Amino acid sequence: MCLGTPMQVVEMQGSYALCEVNNSQEVVDMMLVGDQPKGTWILNFLGAARETMTAEDAEQTILAHNAVSDVMQGGDQVDHLFADLINREPELPDHLKDLVPVNTSPSKS
Question: What is the number of structural domains in the chain?
Fold first, then answer.
């Protein structure tokens, strides 16, 4: 399984960037996302940035990674790492909402 890792650009170096997350640095190929200013969050897959992301999305992804790590080590207390999902109904992305049939069952009287 391959998980993308959010990383923050420290400095551009040609078509690569020195990126960092949790005090760990890596040189990342930036060809797919282009030059990015210092502080930009990118999603790194196997040494290549696949997309830029907001700080909020990066934080949520890092928390999800932490949950996976905790579960792999035998932990089962991960709800706090998904605070954005707890106690709310799931929502479909806009591009899928039109594909769901409207409930057309007759109402009970």
Answer: 1
